[in-house]
Design brief:
about 260 residues; alpha+beta; six-stranded antiparallel β-sheet; five-stranded antiparallel β-sheet; 5 helices; about 45% strand; elongated
C-alpha cells in the first residue's frame, strides 16, 4: 500500500486556473501596392477542467477571447480605416507524469472579421463620393482577404500563450501533489514507485517509499471528508520516513541535499 499519498481537489485546480489575460495583437503586410496593418488587444478568459485519467494527472486548460483591432489599408493617396473583431478558442492538454510534465499541441480555432470605418483620399478627388466609394470597396476587399491571415497569426500567438500557462499550472499542481523530498531522493538515485491518476474528486499521487524487502503502509489511507471541503491533502505513513532514511544508508550526500531532506 502506498505510504505517501497526495490529493488536490478538482475545484481547487479550477480556482487556480481561472484568470484574465491581456494579449497584444498586431499585423502588418504589404500586398502589391497596398499596406495593411492593425494593432489592438484581446482579453482571454482562462479556465481548466480535470478529466478522469490513469497513469497521469491530466489537465485541460481552455481559453476563450475576443478583441478589437484598429486596422488601416493604404494605397498611394487612398487611406481606409476599419475595425477588426478577432475571436479565438483554445484547448491545451497537459499531463503530469511520474518524471516529467508534457503537453499536447494546443487545439486552436480563431477568426477575424473586418468592417469598413471610413475612407480618406489625398488631393483634388478627396470630395468625390464616387471615387471614395470605388476606392473604399477595393481596399475593403483587401482587408477582408487579410482576415484569414490574422486568424492564423492569432492561432499561433494564443496557442503559445495558453501552452505556457498550462505548463505553469501543471508545475504548480505538481508541487501540491508531491513532497519536495521526492526530488531530493532522486538526486541520490533513490526512486520510489509513483502512481498518478484523476477521478471524480480530483488529482491523486500515490508514492511507495519501499524496496522489495521493506514494508510500506499496511492499511489504506483515511478517507477524504464527505463534504469535499479540503483543497489539498497529504497522507504520510511512518514507513515512508523509515524506508527513505534506510535507502540512504552508505550514501555520501552534500549539505544542500541534507537541507532539502
Amino acid at each position: 500500500t502506498p505510504n505517501d499519498v497526495g490529493f488536490v481537489n478538482r475545484s481547487f485546480v479550477t480556482f487556480l486556473a481561472r484568470q484574465h489575460l491581456d494579449q497584444p495583437v498586431g499585423f502588418s503586410r504589404q500586398v502589391t501596392t497596398t499596406r495593411i496593418s492593425g494593432t489592438g488587444r484581446m482579453t482571454l478568459e482562462l479556465s481548466a477542467t480535470v478529466p478522469e485519467s490513469v497513469g497521469r494527472n491530466r489537465l485541460l486548460v481552455q481559453a476563450r477571447g475576443n478583441g478589437t483591432l484598429a486596422a488601416t489599408a493604404d494605397r498611394r493617396r487612398v487611406h481606409v480605416r476599419a475595425t477588426a473583431r478577432p475571436a479565438v478558442a483554445c484547448t491545451q492538454a497537459v499531463d503530469i507524469l511520474p518524471r516529467t510534465i508534457a503537453g499536447d499541441p494546443p487545439e486552436v480555432s480563431a477568426s477575424s472579421r473586418t468592417r469598413l470605418g471610413g475612407v480618406g483620399i489625398d488631393g483634388l478627388l478627396s470630395r468625390c463620393r464616387l471615387v471614395q466609394r470605388v476606392a473604399g470597396r477595393a481596399l475593403d476587399a483587401a482587408l477582408a482577404a487579410n482576415d484569414p491571415r490574422v486568424a492564423a497569426a492569432l492561432e499561433k500567438t494564443v496557442g503559445e500563450r495558453v501552452r505556457e500557462e498550462g505548463i505553469a499550472l501543471a508545475y504548480r499542481v505538481n508541487g501540491l501533489l508531491r513532497s519536495a523530498v521526492w526530488d531530493q531522493l532522486r538526486a541520490v538515485d533513490y526512486e520510489p514507485a509513483v502512481d498518478l491518476h484523476n477521478d471524480a474528486a480530483g488529482l491523486w499521487s500515490a508514492t511507495t517509499y519501499a524496496h522489495a524487502h521493506e514494508l510500506a503502509a499496511l492499511t489504506p489511507r483515511p478517507n477524504l471528508p464527505a463534504d469535499g471541503a479540503l483543497d489539498v491533502v497529504r497522507w504520510v505513513h511512518e514507513s515512508a520516513v523509515t524506508n527513505s532514511l534506510g535507502g540512504l544508508a552508505g550514501t555520501t550526500i552534500d549539505e544542500a541535499t541534507v537541507r532539502g531532506l
